[in-house]
Fold:
Amino acid sequence: MAKKTSPPATGIRLSRLSIENYKKLDRLEIDFPPPLMAGDLDIMVLGSKNGGGKTSVLECCSLLTLAGATGKPTRMRESDSGPIAEILSLLVTAGCEKAVIVGDFEQDSKRCKVTLKISRKGFDGPQIAGDSSIFDMFRRPDDSRQSWLGGVDQALNSILALWSEPLVMPPLLHFNSYRKVQEANPELGMIAADYDADPRSSFAGRIYSGSIARRSVMSAVSAFKLEILRSLMGKASLFEGLDNRESADVLDTVNGLIDRYCGGRIEQLGSLPGNRADLRIKLNNSPHSFSFNGLSSGQKEIIATLFLIWRNTAEQPGIVLIDEPELHLNAEWHGDFVEQLRKLAPRNQYILATHSEEIFRSVDESRRALLVPDDIGSAR
Structure:
C-alpha cells in the first residue's frame, strides 16, 4: 500500500487570468491579488449585467485548473458524441478559430503558468511552464492516474453546467448556477460503496472513479446527504472503519448550519421503501421532526454549499468558485453567506460571480471587480 503524505500547509491559488475569444469575451485580463493582511479572506467578487461574462470567467478558471492537474482537460474531440461535443463549438467566440486561456498559479514560493487552447475540434494542450508540482495535491498517492483521469469528462459536465451536481475535486470546487440539492434519498448500501481511506475525497472518488453505471446512480443523489448519512452511522460506530470522532465533527458542523438557517438539527433517520434513508430534522423545542427535503430550496442550498466547502477544504485549502452564491436565498442571507465562508473555511481562495449588491458590497472595494464591455465588445 502506498504511503500517504501530508498535504501542503498552504493551498494552490490562481493569481492572474487572461482570456481571448471565449464565448462573448473577446479579451479579458484580471488579477487575483492575495490578501494584504494576515487573516483576511482571499476572495474576489465579480459583478456584471446578464451576459457580461461572469460565468465564463469561472468556467475558464476551472478549465485551467483541471488542465494543469490532469495534463489534459478531456479526451473529447469533434468526432465524439454526447452533450460536451455538442457544446464545444459554443465555447469559441463566433468568427474566431480558437479560444486561448492563460493562468498563473502559485503555492508558497512556487509559480506555474498554464496555457489552454480550445478550437471547434477539441482542446489543445495544456502547455505547463514552471513548478507543475503545484498540481500534485490533486492526486492522492494511492490513486492510479488512469482511474483518476476517467472522471475528467464528468468534471466538464459540472463546469459547463450540463448537470446540477457541483464539481468537487479537491482542492478545486466549482458550484455552477444550475446546482440543486436533489430530492432523492440515498440508499443505505451506498455507505459501503466505493470508499477510500480519505473521507474528505469520498465524494470525488464516488463520482469520478466509479463505473459509468455507478456514476449515473450517484449523480442523482446529493453528496451532502450521503455524507451526513455516513457520519450518523460513524458516530454510532455502526460501520467498521468509520471514525466516530470525525463523524461527530461532521454532524456538529452540519447541525450548526441547520440550526442557524432553520432552527433545528438532524439526529435520526427515517425509513423509506427501497432500503432508502430519510434525514429527519427535529426543530428546537419541538417533539416533532420532518424530512430534510421539506426545507426550502434556499435553506437546502446554503446549508449544503457551506457544508461541502468546509468538508472538502478543512485540511487542504483550495480554489472555490461559486456562480451566484445568492441562488435561492433571501436578501438577508446574501451578506451572511460570505461571513460564513470566513468562519468555516477561511484559508481558501474564493472567486464569486454575483448579481447581488449585498454580496458585492460585503467585501472590500479592492476585492471586487465589475465586468463592463468596452467599445469593441471586450470586457474590462
About this structure: Confidence is low (pLDDT under 50) at residues 1-5, 144-148, 194-220. The chain has one domain: 13-370. Residues 13-370 form a domain with the Rossmann fold fold (CATH 3.40.50.300). The longest helix spans residues 244-262.
